[in-house]
Design goal:
It contains ten helices and no strands. It is elongated, with a radius of gyration of 31 Å. It is mostly helical and about 300 residues long. GO terms for molecular function: membrane insertase activity. This is Membrane insertase YidC/Oxa/ALB C-terminal domain-containing protein. It holds the Pfam family 60KD_IMP. It is a multi-pass membrane protein.
Length: about 300
């Protein structure tokens, strides 16, 4: 039966705010009856779907689900599951961005001589006509130089800010996976909720001397390896920047070296699951940077001319 008012009916307040009939109030009574326990069948289907989505709203829950699914589907032990998921995530998320960043840096390095020549010409013109030019003309000249540089960046798709895209993806990924593994190992951390027990099989999912992935490394082998791998990555990046003709920022390099050393005592206090992830991620970065370094070295190595035949 249609409950809408007919055409021409006086839409008074009583008509608009008419109470629903008994058959209309029954579904609401069934859903909101406080005497009945709230179950998935007593709630509308959309509420249950929202509850399922909210369980996986946090990025750490996605990592947890990925590792659990991989562990169940492949039958790998937990230590091999962590290594496999780490390599897969790095290969899918950061490796393509690293290749694009390398190409942008190469294009930016090829434009650097032209930009420096323009900057030198701009400074000479500014110093020569500084007394004759008005402040407005000086600002216009500076604006023209910036416009030309921005136009070149746009044409060659090598804006300096785009070269910083990789850290904005790699660092959040590293933090998210670390928090997910901390949660799976039930490792207490300040200001974060901690499960009562680790994931099933986590305490026996290791190998060799690190059988329990929820405890620290007693041999300190993994913490020292993590710090060593980070220092290798820093030196490889520094060597590639020098080969590309970019200036070496000594302060920034010293800062990253300090982080590579400070991560060693931090790694001694976290579970083996985190140590395994950090070591695998650092080793992936080392292999990636070695590949880029070999490619750059072969590109800049002069080819010897063929010998004349007798």
């Amino acid at each position: 039966m249609n409950s809408w008012p007919r055409a021409g009916t006086n839409l008074s307040r009583t008509t608009l705010w008419k109470r629903p009939r008994t058959w209309q109030r029954e579904p609401l009574r069934r859903c909101y009856d406080s005497s009945r326990p709230v179950t998935s069948t007593s709630l509308p289907w959309c509420w249950g779907l929202a509850a399922d989505v909210s369980n996986y709203a946090a990025p750490t829950a996605w990592i947890d689900a990925l590792m659990t699914t991989t562990h169940s589907a492949t039958g790998f032990p937990w230590w091999l599951t962590i290594i496999t998921c780490t390599v897969a995530m790095r290969a899918a998320c950061t490796f393509p961005l690293a290749i694009q960043q390398r190409k942008r840096m190469e294009r930016l390095a090829s434009l650097t001589p032209l930009l420096r020549a323009w900057e030198q010409t701009y400074r000479q013109q500014l110093m020569r006509n500084r007394r004759e030019m008005s402040p407005v003309a000086m600002k216009n000249l500076q604006y023209m130089y910036k416009e030309k540089a921005s136009e070149l960046y746009k044409v060659y798709n090598c804006h300096p800010l785009k070269t910083l895209l990789l850290p904005w993806v790699q660092i959040p990924l590293w933090v998210t996976v670390s928090l997910a593994l901390r949660n799976m190992a039930a490792f207490p951390a300040p200001f974060l909720s901690t499960p009562d027990s680790p994931v099933e099989g986590f305490t026996t999912g290791g190998t060799s001397w690190f059988v329990d992935l929820a405890t620290q490394d007693p041999t300190l082998l993994f913490p020292l390896s993590i710090g060593f791998l980070h220092l290798i990555n820093i030196e490889l990046n520094r060597s590639m920047m020098r080969r590309a003709g970019r200036k070496d920022n000594l302060m920034l390099t010293s800062f990253f070296r300090s982080l590579g050393i400070l991560i060693i005592p931090v790694a001694t206090q976290v579970p083996m699951a985190l140590n395994l992830y950090w070591a695998t991620s650092a080793a992936f970065s080392v292999c990636q940077n070695i590949g880029f370094w070999i490619k750059d070295r072969n590109k800049h190595t002069p080819v010897a001319p063929p010998e004349a035949s007798p």
